[in-house]
Amino acid sequence: MTLDFALRLLAAFACGVAIGLERQMRQRTAGLRTITLVASGACLFVTLGVLTGNGTTGVTQIASYVVSGVGFLGGGVIMRDKGAIQGINTAATLWCSAAVGVLCGAGHFGPAVAGTAIVLLTNTVLREVSHAINTAPVSAADLIREYTLTVVCREADEIHIRAALSNSMSSAPLSFQSLTSQDYEGDPQRIEVTATLKLHPKDQSKLESIASRLSMEKGVSSVSWSGLEAEPTPE
């Protein structure tokens, strides 16, 4: 029994080290030690069910508790940075490491090794595939981006500029969202007109064309536009 326990724990440790090394080399939040501990801990909990003689039901119940506990741990490595969520892949790797540990604890060494191989392939080979997809031409991506076009003009020309903006958006055509006007800071004789629109990044040249055309309008002192972070097109 002692030899069997040591074999299961050693297998979980080895699988955890294999997965953890890849994460550590990429300097992830959960690296070598964390993932090895998760795999080994999951193995210990499941082995406890085996040693106490609770049968398959007891082992299954303990495994379900391990899954819940690792889910809570995985939440700790997920971070939000300037609206972007980071760490989901590391959290998923922790979850899979726990599954590998559970398999080792239950004595299923073949599936545990296979699971380890799948995790490593996902974090290495599929990582390169995803990078290749992300570097594909933006015209092939199913994205939408919000843009703001700002025009500073004389107060007397506000109505004309608003009409020119509206007509330009309709003729392009672009997904026109809003059109607002406000006093321009530093010059009470000028107005800042801002148009908000959404379009595919490949159509950005249309926005640039509109900005160039408006810059030649009489009474316009400046024209600028900016784009926010692209997001997937709603299905």
Structure overview:
- Residues 208-235 are annotated as: Disordered.
- Virulence factor required for growth in low Mg(2+) medium and for intramacrophage survival. May be involved in regulating membrane potential by activating Na(+)/K(+)-ATPase.
- InterPro entries: MgtC-like_C, MgtC/SapB/SrpB/YhiD_fam, MgtC_SapB_SrpB_YhiD_N.
- It is found in: Cell inner membrane; Cell membrane.
- The structure is a single chain.
- This protein has 235 residues and is α+β, with helices and mostly antiparallel strands.
- The protein folds into two domains: 2-134, no CATH class; 139-232, Alpha-Beta Plaits (2-Layer Sandwich).
- The chain has helices spanning 2-25, 32-51, 55-75, 88-105, 109-134, 158-171, 204-215, and strands at residues 79-81, 84-86, 143-154, 175-183, 190-199, 220-227, 231-232.
- The strands form two sheets. Strands 3, 4, 5, 6 and 7 form a five-stranded antiparallel β-sheet that branches. Strands 1-2 form a two-stranded antiparallel sheet.
- A hairpin with a 2-residue loop joins strand 1 and strand 2 (84-86).
- Helix 1 packs antiparallel against helix 4, helix 2 runs antiparallel to helix 3 (55-75) and helix 3 runs antiparallel to helix 4 (88-105).
- The protein is rod-shaped.
- The two termini are 56 Å apart.
- The mean pLDDT is 82.
